[in-house]
Structures are given as C-alpha cells and as structure tokens.
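Something for you to look into today, if you have time. I want to see for myself how the chain folds. Leave the record below and I will have a look.
***
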Amino acid sequence: MRADQLIVNVNVYNSYYKRFELNNVAVLDGRFMYVGPGGPELIQADEVIDARGRYMIPGLIDIHLHIESTMVTPATFSHGLIRCGVTSIVAEPHEMANVFGLEGVQEMMAASRETTVNMFYAIPSSVPATPMETTGGSIEIEDMDVLLATGEIICLGEIMNYVDVIRDPECKTNQILQHIRKHYPDLVIEGHTPKLLGLDLHRLIYAGVDSDHTHQSIEGLQARIAAGMFIEIQEKSMTPEVMEYLIQHDVTQHFCFVTDDVMPDSLVERGHLDHIVRKAIRMGMRPEDAIYAATSTPASRMKMTDRGSIAPGKVADYVLLSDLEKLAIDQVYKNGRKAYDDYEPYKQERMTGQFPSHFYKSVQLDKLAAEDFAIQLSDPKVVGTANQTDEGPYNCRVMMVKDGSTFVEEHIAQVQAANGELQWEDSGYGQIATFERYGVNGNRAHGLIGGDTIKRGAIATTYSHDNHNLLVVGRNREDMILAANTVISSQGGFCVVEDGKVLSHLELPVGGILTEEPLAVVSHQVKELRAAMLSLGYVHYNPIMSISTHSLAVSPALKITDHGLIDVNAGKVVPLIVEQQ
C-alpha cells in the first residue's frame, strides 16, 4: 500500500479514548489514511519519519477569536499561530466590520484564503454592537445572506447585545436570530452572556444563543451547562475553582478552550491556544483532557467533521511533541506537510498593500484643539435634560477602572464648575473623551475617569472596541491634544504622551486597527506601548485591553461612546452630571 508519509514509533493521541497509543501513522493526499501497528513492511511511503517515541496530537483548533485583537493581518497571524501548533481557527472580524461593514468582512476573508492556517469565519452578528454608538459600517441581514452564499461561513458570531434580545422582541438582534433560525437552521450561533442567570439566561438560549465565552463563575458555569449551553473557556475564566470543577466533573463534552483576544507580544512570548493547554495541565488537568478541549470538542462544536482527531479520513494536521506535560512543540504539520520546525529558521517577510487603498484612509477627523477637551455645561450629554448654572459643585458619574477586569464601575463624585465648564483638571479625576472618526456625524462625548487608570499624561487610540472611534484619556489638555493628533496623523493607532513628549506611538493604518509590520516588530512595539502606559500610573494586568474596552457598550457597567456615557446594565445613555430626583 502506498502513502505520501509514514510516521513510525509515535505515541498517537486517540481522541475517542482520550489516551496515547504507540502506533504508526500513514498520510495520503493530505489526510490520515492509517493509524496502527503496521509499518514499512505494510506501507511504502515517499517520506518516513521516525518519531522516536515522541507524542503526536491533532493540530489545535481555536473557535473563538478576533484576529484584529492581535493588531496584525491574517497572513501575519497565521505565521504566529503555526509555531504554536494552531492549525485551524474560527475568526470573527467584527472589529473590521465596525470600520468597513460588509466589505471589511469580505476583505478579511480574502486576505485569509492563502494562509497556512485554515481560517474559517463567523458572521459578525452585532455590528454595531448597540444602537448607542456610531460606526463606519454595519452588518445587516442582507449582508449576512451575501456572506452565507460564499460557503466560507461556519457560524453566526457572538450575540453581544443580549440586553435587547431579552427586553425588545423587535430589536435588530432578534430579527437576525429569527432570520438565521428560519433560513439557516443548522448554523451554529455563538453567544456573549456575562453574568446572566435564571430566566434571562434561559430566554437567551430559547432565542437560539447556546454558547458563552465570557468570564465564568462556578454558579454561572453550572447554570449554563445544566441548560445545555456550550462553554468556551478563555484564560480569564481559568480560576482555581473553575478548573477544579472542570477536572472533577464529567463535562468534557460541554466545554473547550479558546483565546478570544491575544496581544502580539503575548503571542510571541507565551504562545496562543498552546499556552492555554499548558496552563490547564499545570493546574491539574490531565494532558489528555486538556488536549481534547483544544481539538475534539471545538471541532465538534463547529461541526468540523474532517478534523480534531488523528483518524482515517481526517485532515492531516498534527503536532509532534518532545514533552507532553510541557506541550513542547518540535514540529507542526499542515495537510501532511511540515509547516514549522523548532530546529529550523522561521522568518516572516514583510507584506504591504494587502487591502484596498481606502482601508488606509479611514480616520476622517480634523486635528483637535484645547476647546475640544472642555466639558461644557451647555452640552446635553453632560447635563441631560436639566438646566444647570455656571457654578458648581455637581455630582458627576465617574468611570472607575479596576485591575483584573475590563468591567468599569460607576462612582459618583463632586466636581466644581466655573465659567460654564466642569473644572475636571482640578477634580482629582482624568477626562475620557471619544470622537466619531468616520465623517458620519461629528459626534463626541466627554466623561470622567478614575481608579486604576493613568495618573498623569494622556493616551489616545482608534483601537477602541467595538466602534473604533478616537478615544482619549488624559490628566491634562495639552497631553491629550498631542496624543490625539499624533494618532489622527498616522491614520490610527495608539499614542502615549507625558509632559508634551511622545513616549510610545504604535501606528495601525489599516482601518485604524491593524498593521502590516511583521509579528516580531509589532510584538516589540506593543511591549513598549504597555510599558509606557504603566509608566503613567496605569495599574492593570492588560492596560491595552482595559483602555480599548472603555467604549465597549455591552460590557458592564459604565462605558462611553460618541452618544455619551452608557449605563450598560440599563441599556441607555445617561448624562455625566447626575440629574436631581
């Protein structure tokens, strides 16, 4: 019998029994043909690999992530993933969709077709995430039909606006869910359901949303699994108690591991889904079960019947490990061909012009000046419906940042007013401002910020989930102006300023959210960016993710968009100054 490749003396992971077995493996035409004791005496192969007792596992599969979170193009992302043993992903490009709508999704898909990693796509279901923000594009039901007609879509991406799904039967998200369930009944529907329990959780599942990838507690985990919900465990959910629950209970069919968002420096230094698997093993999970949760269950969830295990007919994506406990990756094979070798050079060539020319001109915003950072009592977003005088003090809502979470709490503090403006620079709090940058309506909004955020200087970015308008946080106007205008001039990115000096500037010219620089370069830039943010007094395990989610109006509890301050739990815009009852 002929084969293209024969791997002998290898401990093969059997997904069906969740154990390793010393066997030989034959590959033909990019798929596994045979797994068993028979060797060269039975199969004549063009290439014979002696694994010398090493471990063979399926290529890792990550079914919930956003390429844009790594701030690089699909080609660069693929380069980073392969060395981590990740061979298939499901990407949801709702960041690019918020900037360019349907075209943004189509161009991300086009840029992924020639990558080594198989990149399947989820339709962004919540663009914009809420009606309380302005974006550069939207995804409507007719756009979903266009995307589904390509045959390249694997699921409906995370339903983020869960508040409206529960409270408003006629909302856009419910219309989408009804359309998908009627016309595409077999399509997987992904969810985003932080803290939901009881009747509200069951109503969401009833609407068709049957997975959750948000931060899990034991109570939430049990409630979701009991109601038939599939759980996607990202690193922030890997608390000792959650991991102990997953280890001690027979729930392996009900969860998998995902990354969701990975910064470029973390991808280079720690890895990707492989890092999650290693961490699970260190926390006491059997390697066999950790591998299962990164190969078999994600494949099953997304109905990828051709991968996720090493068995006849499956795609020959596999990883050879020298150490199982440490998940030490020696080589990675894609479709039976070697894609990465830890003992050989692995370099990335710089690519430019991967997107249409207008993707590099998405920041349509004039430079800002001192008056743009005045918090005026004449602004309805500041005062609401009440009439205010020129003098204070006023009770104001303050966004309080907290280390360890992207949630931002509401705090009420007194701030003085004079000459028709809040005197925020003397308040002990910083200002957070956002400016619509697509040339749609010129909206802007101002708020106050405190807690574990910066204590001096300013940070500006267009990498602000999910609308990606220009977001500026600062302790004084001059630094805010410099940071904002630096980002505007570079067509997007991050800028950190202190005392009139730029400490770090990461340019993201593709849609204001991506760069075409090689991963090694971006990793260094992001590491420098993080250090600059921390030098301003930011206290957070991930300050980049923290600040970029200050405008995420589906993440509790008080956020800001160009419409104003958002009370996320109430699902409404609220004024900066607390109105008298």
Notes: The radius of gyration is 25 Å. The mean pLDDT is 96.
